[in-house]
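User: Show me a protein chain along with its predicted structure.
Assistant: Here is one chain, sequence first, then structure tokens.
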Amino acid sequence: MTTISIDQVSRWFGNVVAVNDVSMTIGPGVTGLLGPNGAGKSTLIHMMSGFLPPSSGSVTLDGVQVWKNQQAYRQIGLVPEREAMYDFLTGHEFVLANAELHGLPDPGAAAQRALATVEMEYAQDRKVTTYSKGMKQRVKMASALVHDPDVLLLDEPFNGMDPRQRMHLMELLRRFGADGRTVLFSSHILEEVEQLARHIEVVVAGRHAASGDFRKIRRLMTDRPHRYLVRSSDDRKLAAALIADASTAGIELDWTEKALRIQAIDFYRFTELVPRVAKEAGIRLHTVSPADESLESVFSYLVTSAR
């Protein structure tokens, strides 16, 4: 049972602050590190894995500093987002090299087990340069698993994977979590985290925005005010019918878009209300689309709520 503790950690590069006073604890099981691109997820993972020192604060593995701690590397498996790989090697040679660097007693057998775990035996003798992005992701995963680590840190591991590869990796991570390993994976895609992790840590613009059970965080996201762009066969009539309901906070007629801009404060009630009102009034709906559903807007709301 291994725990990573991040205590008031900041990291800056010159005048750029990538991570700002973040504290969190990552324990056994599967944890999702969620945030938009550029939020500081990769920087946090690099500090957890011991490849980057914090500018201030501390990162510890079971109470021991990770930075410049060679023993910690034996417990950690890292799957970085970047594809900086030795393309002239075969998949087997790439994983074998990592097994040898760890000084394993039988590196060849360890490499074969790791490749079998990620279902890459069929392509192990091909050069990495011939691999698709999804195949490279799986070989990086095999390399991270070759020494059977207690901790797995994965930075956007599902990038480039097809649906079958994605489902296989998800099942693999669930199994590792159930076995008591500490698994952390980062993602900017809400659905990936929802399918895999009950506990999540949310970071936005280098700050820790939220932490806890996924359903609790999801509820915060759902309960925030939502904005919609609605086009119909009779926008004025529809606006008059919707504004009378308590789920709607405001409606504006956008002459440029030829549509209604609606702010809803009760997500579930509003999504049930619109089709029912339109049907009762004989109005045809052409478009009902969220106008503020970018991850950045969702996370910005979480940051505001956390203050």
